Amino acid sequence: MLELRPILSALWRHKISALLIAVQLGLTLAIVGNASVVIQERMERIARPTGVAVTDIVTAKFMPVAKDYDRLRAFRRDLDMIRQLPGVAAATVSRVPLTGGGSRTGLHTKPNREVGATSSAQFWGDEQLVDALDMKLVAGRDFTASDITETSFSSGWRPSKAIVTQQLAGELFAGGEALGKAVYLGDEDNPIEIVGIVERNLGPWPNAPDAGNAVFYPAIMDTQWFDYVVRAEPGQRDAVAKLLEEKLAEHDPQRVVTVKTLQEQLDRYYAGDNTMIKVLSSVAGLLTFIVALGIVGLTVFWITQRQKQIGVRRALGATRSAISRYFLLENLLIAVTGILIGVAAAQIFNYFLASEFDQPALPLSTTLSCALILLGVSLTATLVPALRAANISPATATRSV
């Protein structure tokens, strides 16, 4: 307490420079706090379970040269061949989830409804669709060969059976008791019986508001937008990818084949999120470093200006620890002032981001965690100059002018 009065007096004499450091610290806390919550939200989004075997799946797409190419015949011939390849666990032909490309539909629990549909991603595939994606069936049954229809989008065909995700089942029916119930497409009256429920599938767009709502129909569609979805045995993905490209080219040389892993496509989809994480982390680190440099510079400047006073105190019996403690306490007062400014600024800034850009809310716990980190950085930055001040010789200091 005896040191507090001279510290406050010294800060008042240098109030502009002290206030600038406090404001800089406060703005840094506001930016770092909001950056932290965005980084955390993006990291949690990327780390979510997808519901499919991302690391084991290979996809293949082909583009035929001939204009009158029979895709349905090619699909069946290729699938028969692919399923015999060494290292292949299951294969189907469908749209590929988690890649940013697909289609949505609106599902109703009553026929002939035009509004109030539940949005859902939709997939088509044969009896190995669930196995090829390695989705976990939690209720009901899988598709069988007798369920599968070979058709096209222009034929007017409508499914009579479907498998849905648990999330979609919960949104359609109270308590998720969807097994055996019927759903309807748009304003139609054709009932689609839910024969199975899988645990999870994020659908084509993992970042979409309806991610996790997915419905699967038993059909092979005559379209160029479907891929072969091939699940390899664990550890065999790369070997299967190479073999798949070779065998598809040999099987029918009149087409161009493109083979990719699902992990590559998912990484590409999350590229923007990963870039944001890196940029915000770099900005937060840079701002913290700049604040630390400012504190070091200000403390060194004040020590240089006060060498004579420090020498007098040392000559009067002040210990090294007392000198160091003086500057640490002085910096602590500045840091606490800056943190109080920063806590308020962080909440105001977050309110603006949440209302204008739909960013996640900033929990007070995150703000306080960032405040403690910045407080630690501030005191650490002061420590070296404070120890330097403690080592000033009384004789040298008292001779200085």
Quick overview:
Belongs to the ABC-4 integral membrane protein family. 51% of the residues lie in helices and 18% in strands.
In terms of topology, how is this protein built?
Elements: H1 4-13, H2 15-47, E1 57-64, H3 71-82, E2 88-94, E3 104-108, E4 118-125, H4 129-133, E5 137-140, E6 149-151, E7 161-165, H5 166-172, E8 182-185, E9 192-198, E10 214-221, E11 227-232, H6 237-251, E12 255-261, H7 262-269, H8 271-305, H9 307-315, H10 320-357, H11 364-390, H12 394-399
Parallel strand pairs: 4-10, 6-10, 7-9
Antiparallel strand pairs: 1-11, 1-12, 2-11, 3-4, 3-8, 5-9, 7-10, 8-9
Transmembrane segments: 283-305, 326-349, 361-384
Domain ABC3 transporter permease C-terminal: 282-394
Keywords: Cell membrane, Membrane, Transmembrane, Transmembrane helix
Can you tell me about this structure?
It is found in: Cell membrane. It is a multi-pass membrane protein. The chain crosses the membrane at residues 283-305, 326-349, 361-384. It holds the Pfam family MacB_PCD. This is ABC transporter permease. The protein has 401 residues and is of the alpha+beta class. The chain folds into 2 domains: 4-47 and 271-399, no CATH class; 70-253, no CATH class. Helices cover 51% and strands 18% of the residues. The chain contains 12 helices and 12 strands. The protein has helices at residues 4-13, 15-47, 71-82, 129-133, 166-172, 237-251, 262-269, 271-305, 307-315, 320-357, 364-390, 394-399; strands spanning 57-64, 88-94, 104-108, 118-125, 137-140, 149-151, 161-165, 182-185, 192-198, 214-221, 227-232, 255-261. The strands form 2 sheets. The protein has a 6-stranded mixed barrel. Strands 2-11-1-12 form a 4-stranded antiparallel sheet. The two termini are 30 Å apart.
